[in-house]
Design a protein that fits this description.
homotetramer; 346 residues; alpha/beta; Aspartate Aminotransferase, domain 1; seven-stranded mixed β-sheet; four-stranded antiparallel β-sheet; globular; L-threonine aldolase (chains A, B, C, D); PyrdxlP-dep_Trfase (chains A, B, C, D); pyridoxal phosphate (chains A, B, C, D); ArAA_b-elim_lyase/Thr_aldolase (chains A, B, C, D); PyrdxlP-dep_Trfase_major (chains A, B, C, D)
Chain lengths: 346, 346, 346, 346
């Protein structure tokens, strides 16, 4: 019963099949493969931006760090929340790729408000050579606590950035989970909401390892290409990245996978509401559930074979409440979820 | 008729099958997958070093840059040839990952001699705070011009490094092509010849995108892990890297693929010896052929459908000799080679 | 009436005289001047550490950034307060020199408590490759708000760092102002209180531009020398740095200057207590005063010729309280202070 | 008898006097001192560029590295000679400040020719993401071997750079020595000869530690200011940099000092022509002399109290010729030179 992450499951069949199909004959290397031409066209169509610059890399951290570095000077502050993946889970990849930019933390959780953002921006005086300069706004959608920015929230935050002339970047590692939850179009959740660049995740939603970086304004394209190569993220046998994304986008596999993942989380959450002692930290909105339980319950669940993320030690005061994270993906069966619920509700 | 590179062909069947086999069920992420445990054990056995530190990344540039960065201080000189891949084909990834080390060029081609190396090392005065400090020796095997360092050459060069207390690194993007050409053991071509760390290539010899970084002394292991994550090269669904390497190493697929690639190059070279006007730049020793031809011959070959690397423009003085690079891999058929030869010998 | 900073006044006569005295004849360059030998010996004696490594640079930011970089890996978190000079006034010099370390902010002001420090350290899980690694503790003495860490506060904070095996660094841009205020020895305020390395400021206390970097354990000496040269902070005509520090340390000029500066601040603060509407933000403890006044009072003071730091615009709601910073140095006369007080109380 | 460098002598009296004069009263910090306003105006007038951006730093390496970083992307090649100070004497400051640019070496000595430059530029294929991109041309005037680029040589080299759209930078650590030797105007030796930015040296010609960075096109001004602060090279008590440059430029002190230095070298060289066994490596053109002598002669000179740079060990085969460097500055007396000549010819 594995709920540790959405990076522990297999490829979606559509992705796996595209990989196999691509694995024959000659393909030009380094992104010149014809599959990539198709992927680029698909993404431009899906996002309704014919001139968008589209690139593939293999990890979410690479997508975030390379995209941000293209938008950020070494002396800039990047505005993000304290729980942002770029702040806590990337071992300083953003600082490395930007050449020493600072993450300037807004709010105290996984989401920020326009007022918090404005206050933080104002905290760095424009034109003062001693301080951080004002750089891009970064937002994660789905957030690191499994929540969503509603479209009006996105627009309000990017509106503040726009007032100050700052670019905006969305970490969309779970982009599609958010998209199907909000039931909007990719354009509505990005450039129509003021987003300039996007990490469009594939890995957590059925791919083996592929993320697209999308700049809605292609001005940065060549610099991005240089940064990708210099960062050692340009694949020689690029077809194997292209093929994943091709399979992912074909016939709605990406949407289907995200809907399945979200539905699995909803089923799990619905069941857990009846578990005595369990409290949701945030109301689940996509494919992640954060909840607290007394330690004794975690001991019981893990002894029963459940695997999930735990904030704190398994040993200690049995009454202390500690936080768990349960993540679902498309590949989980109802049976698996129901087995877990049976264990939980004991 | 594609001879542009050994990164344009498909996966070796053993690799592709391992990928498919790995694509089922739950696997812990970030390198904790059990397939990686097997890969680590296999590599340790193949290299006869039970404690070696073994890691996987997806690109050769990542393997080189991360391994070198672990061995190099920002103020160090890395000793390599002017034609080294790290010098001419990695868009400053080594400088980026080392934080500004300098590539100090030895000799004037793809190979260096002990005397050239010694002279260059002596060129940086030990203990002088103003100059580059003496850092690692880097050697590429197979070289960038398709040649080999014989074991005694390797030992002589690493011996010079050892005299000065300098570590040694081998870029083995085509490691196995060299190995089967020299008909020696992996240990003989590496640590027994004085090599401290190795990029052990898979991508160019039948994998989709995987290279192992091997430190024969595991002292650097944790630093390498931090550098890999910070460089955004740690795969979440790491099983798909592990599986490639597993398939590659199982039942001698790696050796078989390299032998086939080298044999294809030999067949090609043998035929080309009869081509009027063709001159080998270096005697081919592995799976790459460098040769010059009058431009008119290149025009004829490319018009006939041949694709390969060309140093210079296709248009110009028809009598001027320009250099071509032909690369073979395991997937090329005798028929393909013979078709090319038929065209060449016309 | 200039109270904007302690970097706007002239050299202390003892420093100026030493500069003039050094300005004759031949001196070896790059720190090999005999004056530096004397300075090194003086500092070792003052700090009671015969083997301390001692270096000079020209700016406080250089001292901080180079010292920290020597103690910090690029993937480390440096623990400091949000108001730390290294966080808000150095334009990412720490991030630049460390190669991308993160400043992990402790507390919400200019001082931190042991509990706050411990919580922040615990926030970065040891051995987790994804997050920041735990790096050095940084403390500023005098703090950026003009306050002091008492010796027992220093010992408590460094004790927490020691528990986790973390090194400690003190930004002592106003070291001597703190020293004379606490009336302790340099050893008591540094290594006896658990400090491993120190920026020992000269510039703000009567020098033209010189700071010593002191490592009580000389293990880092050579790396520091390389970092200083690579950062372009090694002076060729080093005698002019040495001479400043020599003059500063001779016959107690440094202590005398700091006592005068602190006494000037005390005189100023004593007078201001009678100013209607003025509120100290923190009780002044050294040579800086932070206070709030209604904007109309600032308008009146600045119209009257007073120059000082102001947090906020001079134009706006006349009743709004905004913060001022007044800084004194040794060179200010009682007359100047009394003139300002006459204006203020006027 | 000290001829080791032009960084071992005292300040020129005009500089020392300006320092003393500046050392009184209040001055705004960080470059806002009124002395700097005068210096900026003086330099703009001297170079005949009213809009030039002018900044001061304390070391030549800082001037070079910061100026180059402003003109260079991390993936660019900087074209310079193998003997360039930036290549051999700055401990990777250029690589550090540029974020990993590569110094691409042109020619095999201290000067390059247009053909050598063109060949090296052509060696990096435009638009190839794998290789270095083409960056600025760097020239040192006076060269590191004491030679001059004639104006037509400068124009020819910058003309090649211009053809490729590349910016040009002059390391003028000994700018004035070259200027008076060529008897031309500062404008003629810089922007009229195609130079875009300049390190205008003061330290080696009578200052304590100051270099101006001049951009003839001020487009880069703000970025330079950020880089200077981030590099920790912005002085708080900036007046002491300004004053040096003010004294240096007033009443022709800079020209007088350089003429004296060059005349001293000429006197020394004239005498040495009669020394048996001495051979000039290059004909001296400014204030440096490079010559070879049998080792036994070096042993005799150094035993006699002469101090100078030596390429090689003082111990060894007495007949082996090794190279010496003799450098003169304005402060050396005829008597000192004649004493040395008496010893040499003795």
């Amino acid at each position: 019963m594995f709920f540790a992450s959405d990076n522990t499951g297999p490829m979606h069949p559509a992705v796996a099949q595209a990989m196999v199909a691509a694995d024959a004959g000659y393909h030009p290397s380094y992104g010149a493969d014809p599959i990539m031409d198709g992927v680029r066209a698909q993404i431009r169509e899906i996002f309704e931006v014919p001139e968008a610059a589209v690139y593939l890399v293999a990890t979410g951290t690479a997508a975030n760090a390379l995209a941000l570095a293209t938008m950020t000077k070494p002396w800039d502050a990047v505005f993000c929340t304290p729980l942002a993946h770029i702040n806590v889970d990337e071992c300083h990849a953003p600082e490395f790729y930007t050449g020493g930019a600072k993450l300037s933390l807004v709010g105290d959780g996984d989401k920020m408000t326009p007022d918090q953002l404005r206050a933080r921006i104002e905290g760095w005086t424009k034109g003062d050579v001693h301080t951080s300069q004002r750089g891009p706004l970064q937002l994660t959608q789905v957030t690191e606590m499994g929540r969503l920015y509603q479209l009006e929230e996105l627009r309000a935050l990017t509106g503040v950035a726009r007032e100050y002339g700052l670019p905006t970047f969305m970490d969309g590692a779970r982009f599609t989970n958010a998209l199907v939850a909000l039931d909007c179009t990719p354009a509505e959740m990005t450039w129509k909401a003021g987003i300039d660049a996007l990490s469009f995740g594939g890995t957590k939603n059925g791919c083996a390892g592929v993320e697209a970086v999308i700049f809605f304004d292609p001005a940065h394209a060549w610099e991005f290409e240089l940064r990708r190569k210099r960062g050692a993220h340009l694949f020689s046998k690029h077809r194997y990245l292209s093929a994943q994304m091709q399979g992912y986008l074909t016939d709605g596999a990406w949407l289907e996978a995200a809907r399945a993942a979200n539905a699995n989380a909803a089923r799990l959450a619905a069941g857990l509401r009846d578990m005595p002692g369990l409290e949701f930290v945030e109301e689940p909105e996509a494919n992640m559930i954060f909840a607290t339980l007394p330690r004794r319950e975690h001991q019981r669940l893990q002894a029963g074979g459940a695997v999930y993320g735990l904030w704190g030690d398994l040993e200690g005061d049995p009454d202390e409440r500690i936080m768990m994270r349960l993540v679902t993906d498309w590949s989980m069966t109802h049976e698996l979820i129901d087995d877990f619920l049976a264990l939980a509700l004991g």
